[in-house]
Write a structure and sequence with these properties.
With about 190 residues, the protein is of the alpha+beta class. The protein contains 5 helices and 6 strands.
Length: about 190
């Protein structure tokens, strides 16, 4: 239990500005990376899950990934889809951020406001490479909370668009059950 003490507890999103929400997520990722080998995958997943659920609007992201087919799902299928997509997303973070070798996040405190009311929080992940990795977080406010609804790599590659492309053919061929099953299998594969 003490191994999780250095991962920052989930903050009250109602109190956070968009950059503060992204910074809290980045801090949790760095902390998990620093403890990566000692925590193992399961420990990183447990440590990161509350931060990811706090920072990302996983139900909305699920609806956006599915697009129009979302409305054809039953309420139970929608619930299962959100659960499977959320588990897969958390597993992906726990798998990707597994070890630390000096990485550093830099979060811009001045987000770009969009006409829609959403904002983009710009950040960089500095690794050993000369060029930092640019990550832009598209954020939306709902019920007084700012949460991430998409992540753009290098300012242009949408995480949700990539996943929609990947998942749409599965949804078309096998329906909701096939996609839920695929998400569960992918999450399980990341744990190994």
């Amino acid at each position: 239990m003490g191994a999780f003490a250095t991962v920052a507890p989930a903050r009250a999103a109602e109190e956070s500005t968009p950059p503060e929400t992204v910074q809290a997520l980045c801090d949790a990722l760095i902390s998990a990376m620093k403890q990566g080998p000692s925590l193992g995958y399961a420990g990183r997943k447990r440590a990161l899950e509350p931060e990811i659920r706090q920072a990302l609007n996983l139900p909305l992201m699920t609806r956006l990934v599915l697009g129009p087919p979302w409305t054809t799902l039953t309420p139970e299928q929608q619930r299962q889809m959100v659960e499977a997509f959320s588990d897969y997303s958390i597993a992906t973070y726990a798998n990707r951020f597994s070890s630390y070798s000096g990485e550093l996040f830099s979060v811009d405190t001045a987000p770009t406001r969009l006409a829609s009311g959403d904002v983009i929080v710009h950040s960089q992940l500095k690794t050993g490479d000369p060029e930092p990795v640019r990550l832009d977080y598209l954020m939306r406010e709902a019920d007084g909370r700012w949460q991430v609804i998409d992540v753009f790599l290098s300012g242009t590659i949408s995480e949700l668009a990539a996943r929609r492309s990947e998942f749409s053919s599965v949804l078309r061929r096998g329906g909701a059950a096939a996609l839920i099953d695929l998400l569960r299998k992918k999450a399980a594969e990341l744990s190994g």
